[in-house]
Design goal:
The protein is an alpha+beta fold. It has helices at 12-24, 82-89, 95-100, 110-126; strands spanning 41-47, 53-60, 63-69, 76-80, 104-108. It has 4 helices and 5 strands; from the N terminus they run H-E-E-E-E-H-H-E-H. The protein has a 5-stranded mixed sheet with strand order 3-2-1-4-5.
Length: 135
């Protein structure tokens, strides 16, 4: 089935929506990583078809302040396929490796996007998102 994650029963669209609306929302207003304490950035994650979604996230003083569906002013944007995003969110693929393999495009302030990708790599390792049974 095209809209399901391989070997997982949850539809791709649902897995992505749950990541942003539930998993990330539960982490709002918490200090999650020491390296994030001085980070202030608003960025977008743009997921390409077959599941076209866009989410805008704001980090202030190292805390996730907001997770909004849709486009908003941001310093940079990450454009990638939904399957690639879920691999990154699960901690199976580093954001930097995905960028260098041309699986992620960074738009806007490229330097900000690259710095953010480095910090987020630790976040994804510490807080992996699993969409199905534990492997």
């Amino acid at each position: 089935m095209a809209d399901e994650i391989s070997s997982h029963a949850i539809p791709l669209n649902d897995a992505l929506t749950l990541y942003f609306s539930d998993f990330l929302a539960a982490k709002k207003n918490q200090s999650l990583l020491p390296k994030l304490r001085k980070l202030n950035v608003t960025f977008r994650i743009v997921l390409q078809p077959p599941v076209a979604q866009m989410w805008t996230l704001t980090i202030k003083d190292g805390m996730l302040i907001s997770v909004l569906q849709g486009e908003s002013d941001s310093q940079c944007a990450f454009r990638l396929k939904p399957e690639t995003f879920l691999q990154i969110a699960a901690g199976k693929l580093s954001p930097q490796m995905a960028f260098f393999k041309r699986q992620v495009d960074i738009e806007g302030e490229i330097d900000t996007g690259l710095k953010l990708a480095t910090v987020l790599a630790e976040f994804f390792q510490r807080f992996p998102y699993h969409t199905g049974p534990t492997e």
